[in-house]
Amino acid sequence: MKTLSIILLFITFQSSAMAEKGVVVNILPDKLTLSIDCEAQVKLQRLKTEPEKFSIGYSCKNSTNGSYYMDFRLNDMDIVADFNDGSAKVDVNKTKFKSYTLYELFIESKEGEKFKFVSYCTEDICLDLVGNYEKAVKDSITSQLRG
Fold first, then answer.
1. For residue 47, pLDDT beyond 60
2. What is the residue-wise DSSP string for 30-61?
3. Quick one: 67 exposed, middle or buried, by C-beta within 10 A (0-12, 13-18, 19+)?
């Protein structure tokens, strides 16, 4: 079943650059237009110790040339449990947003490094937003989610 889901995700992954509006991505139930500064990356990772991981990611630049990432993946892992392994302080806000579940994770490592992580998940697919993104990026994604 997982292989079929991966194949379907590959088939439904359609993106096209539009010089004025950005990169259009049709993976979630809603079509998203991402910044023209985003660069696509496809990752299929197999490790002996972990289950197969598959994602389609975008590396993007913010207004100060910092990087942030958008990762579209199958909703087949507990993202909170991955971070909540005792090596970092994790605060989680979980809310329902239309047909999505929105997870906002605020993480502080033992070394004091802080970062935020947001996931927009349906039953099948998640969009993870991580890195040095600005509030406007999250607001843009949220405003495009209709389902």
1. no
2. S-EEE-TT-EEEEEEE--SSS--EEEEEEEEE
3. exposed
Surface-to-core class of residue 112, CB atoms within 10 Å of its CB (0-12 exposed, 13-18 middle, 19+ buried): exposed
Unique residue bearing structure tokens 């806000």: 93
List Cα–Cα distances, 30 to 26, 77, 78, 88, in angstroms: 7, 22, 23, 33
Q: Quick one: pLDDT at residue 16?
A: 40
CB 129 within 8 A of CB 105: no
Mean pLDDT of the region 124-144? 91
Tokens of 81: 């449990």
Which 8-state DSSP code applies to residue 13?
Answer: -
Average pLDDT over residues 89-95: 88
User: Dihedral, CA atoms, 106, 75, 138, 17, nearest 10 degrees?
Assistant: 140
> Taking the model in full, what pTM does it have?
0.75
Q: Which of 23, 35, 27, 13 is nearest to 120 (CA)?
A: 27
Dihedral (CA of 33, 131, 88, 44) sign = positive
